[in-house]
Amino acid sequence: MADLEVPSGPAPERRPEGPPPGGPIATTLTRVAVTTFAVLFTIHLLDYLDRWALAGVLKRVQVDLGMSDGQAGSLNFYFLLTFSLISPIMGFAGDRLRRTWLLAGGVGLWSLATVGTGLVRSYGELTVARSLLGIGEATYGVLAPTILADLFRRESRARAMAAFYLAMPLGYAMGVFGAAWIATNSPDWLAGTGLERWAGWRMAFFIVGGPGLLAAFFCLFLPEPTRGASEDIDPERARAAEGVRPTKEDYADLAVNSSYTYCVFGQATFTFAFGGLAYWLPSYLDRVKGFGSERAALVVGLSGGLSAIIGMTLGGWLADKLSKTNPRALFLVPGLSMILAVPFVIATVFARSDAFIIGSMFLAMTLMLMNTGPCSAVIANVVTPNMRGVAFAVSIFFIHVLGDLWSPWLMGLASDYLGHPEVMASWIGERLQAIGAEPVEQEDGSYRNLTAGMLVVVPAILLGGCVLLAGARHLPREMALMLAKLRSSATARGK
User: Which SUPFAM superfamilies does the UniProt record give (predicted)?
Assistant: First the structure.
């Protein structure tokens, strides 16, 4: 398969080989697809709710466990380190084993880790809990998109992926605000019960982690679709192709697949920026802009949820619509939206009016989130179904290792370092003060410069947009190459 050549230029016109789209197979597939999508979306919502609950109570955890901004930022590092390292293993397993059973194990593990976070007594124990969370979530993050790619055809794949990934910011919003709200109100609930020591941020993790244990049970009963069932290929040939194992040459081809590599690197820069902003925004609005912890969590949560609905829906719809005549739109839409987000991120950091801060934050997040559906569709469209698990896993590995594995930590370190009076007295400090990035005194009397820390992400956003735009020229040829490989492998298997 590695030596197969396809002429350059626009993708050839599709000629479906199987039953007509309106036939009974398509009807059954649609019914199964909708049901499976609903279950996977709900679990994805719980995934991000559990992941981001920490951001909503981070200030409380820091005070209780005595952590600096650098230590607080490193918690995301430990989570994403295990998440990234386990992802390739899960991708390899997912291309060979029943994916729904693997999902059940992953969902159960991350839910137990979330509940366990409420029991920690030190920074060290918290890093262990976050690491276990990463192992569990790696399973789901890798395998769920491959199942969806087997259920939704190319013509609607960007919208399906965008809708699925809506759970990310919605779960973020629910996790950030929900955890903050539970932490604030749980002391009243538990007063006089003898359970007062579990009130506050600990109770938040007990409550948000519990539903995942039930979700793990439901994963055991999800149907397992045939790999490649949604492609323009006869169902019998899709089942034949499913049994073909990728060769070393196929994996080597993935490394030189330009659409794939540009997409992965573009997503890495987005993840660096968005992951850092999502982690620190509630604390920034509280500590620097004076919103208060609960109001900051509410503002970020609502803005994130609404911007996700608009940004992801618009990005998926626009990319699908434009790609009917120009497949390159799957790159052009997210690339342009990333570049347009830059001025609004800067305005969020430096605006003084509450309304201006909230409006700029909403527009920045909306534009940045337009990339998720189209970029996931690119990966599904240029990789054969029998190695999509590995493709998504490698993608997850690199977007986090090059992205938000570092950004929250680097932003926290920048806040600590650039808050020192002697640093602010240097030429660096003078330039930061000239643009309004000044330290703020904390409750313990120390000074931290979280404004300067927030600026770390701006170059990454601009770079990501440029990378995605550069990848557009390769896409039509590599989409045609994938379909040709799939048909070739099915024919070879049937002989």
Answer: MFS general substrate transporter
> For the segment 275-322, what is each residue's pLDDT rounded down to a tens digit?
898 888 888 898 888 888 778 878 887 887 788 889 988 998 898 889
Indicate whether 1 belongs to any domain: no
What is the number of domains present in the chain? Answer: 1
Poorest-pLDDT segment among 218-227, 256-265, 305-314: 218-227
Q: Which two tokens stand for residue 296?
A: 């900051």
Is residue 269 within 8 Å of residue 468, measured between CB atoms?
A: no
Q: Answer whether residue 87 is part of any domain.
A: yes
Average pLDDT over residues 1-29: 41
Domain with 233 in it: 24-494
In the predicted model, what is the mean pLDDT of residues 187-202? 79
Q: Examine the pLDDT at 266 and tell me if it is beyond 90.
A: yes
Q: How far is CA 328 from CA 146, 195, 264, 377, 478, in A?
A: 22, 58, 16, 12, 11
Q: Which residues contact 451 (CB under 8 A, 6 or more apart)?
A: 284, 288, 349, 350, 436, 437, 438, 440
In a domain, 46, yes or no: yes
User: Residue 170: which of 270, 315, 309, 310 has the closest Cα?
Assistant: 309
Encoded amino acid at 155, one letter: E
List the CATH number of the domain containing 145. Answer: 1.20.1250.20
Q: For residue 440, what are the β-bridge partners? A: 448
pTM: 0.68
Residues 83 and 396: beta-carbon distance below 8 Å: yes
Q: Residue 34: inside a domain, yes or no?
A: yes
Determine the residue type at 70: G
pLDDT per position as a tens digit, 86-117: 888 888 887 777 888 888 888 888 889 988 99
Residue with tokens 């690491």: 131
- Is the per-residue pLDDT at 9 higher than 60? no
Instruction: Please determine, for residue 144, whether its predicted confidence score (pLDDT) is greater than 70.
Output: yes
Q: How many CB atoms lie within 10 A of CB 491?
A: 12
